[in-house]
Write a structure and sequence with these properties.
heterodimer; A: about 110 residues; mainly beta; four-stranded antiparallel sheet; about 0% helix; about 55% strand; B: mainly beta; six-stranded mixed sheet
């Protein structure tokens, strides 16, 4: 089974802090994604990466950046955390060679920005 | 503007009865649809999918119906079980090899024993 691991289950940060969310997948998937989940809004795509060192903006990239130096690891960076970035953050990976758009998700990181 | 909408934020059904979760979309280019289930403190897990060349796909207790003319899909769970209590997300993409999934807002299903 695919395993997508997010380094922290809960994080509490202060406004203005730089925040790093880490995600590692163990199935050699080329594609990786960062979503945030908010009540009533579902999952919204922040950034995705087709492959190492490649990144594309999703629907809500403002205030975020990403890093993909190794195939298995995709990091989400909040340059200067703000209270409106309090959310559940979900990392996902996908094998583009596999039929279907099926994503495999990590368990999520609940980030609170105070 | 949300391209995928789940208009019912919550649904409560009795164990053994049918659960029907609905999803509407506006983008006529969407041609591949998926349902994900999410338990608290876990990531979403894939449940079932359907391509626009079909109008029905069945997997055990779960059936997804697609009405392309109405831009509507639904997930039927029969019979519902307490373990089905979770948040269900509908998602859509343009093509099944695409990288972009657009999700709905989710419906919380509660199955009462």
């Amino acid at each position: 089974d695919v395993k997508v691991t997010q380094s922290s289950r809960y994080l509490v940060k202060r406004t203005g802090e730089k925040v790093f969310l880490e995600c590692v997948q163990d199935m050699d998937h080329e594609n990786m994604f960062w979503y945030r989940q908010d009540p009533g809004l579902g999952l919204r795509l922040i950034y995705f990466s087709y492959d190492v060192k490649m990144k594309e903006k999703g629907d809500i990239p403002e205030g975020y950046s990403v890093s993909r130096e190794k195939k298995e690891r995709f990091s989400l960076i909040l340059e200067s955390a703000s209270t409106n970035q309090t959310s559940m953050y979900l990392c996902a990976s996908r094998d583009p060679g596999h039929p279907g758009v099926k994503l495999f998700f990590g368990s999520g990181t609940q980030l609170s920005v105070l | 503007d949300q391209q995928v909408k789940q208009n019912s934020p919550s649904l409560s059904v009795q164990e053994g009865r049918i659960s029907i979760l609905n999803c509407d979309y506006t983008n006529s280019m969407f041609d591949y649809f998926l349902w994900y289930k999410k338990y608290p403190a876990e990531g979403p897990t894939f449940l079932i999918s359907i391509s626009s060349i079909k109008d029905k796909n069945e997997d055990g207790r779960f059936t997804v119906f697609l009405n392309k003319s109405a831009k509507h899909l639904s997930l039927h769970i029969v019979p519902s079980q307490p373990g089905d209590s979770a948040v269900y997300f509908c998602a859509a993409s343009e093509g099944n090899a695409g990288n972009m999934l657009t999700f709905g807002g989710g419906t919380r299903l509660m199955v009462k024993p």
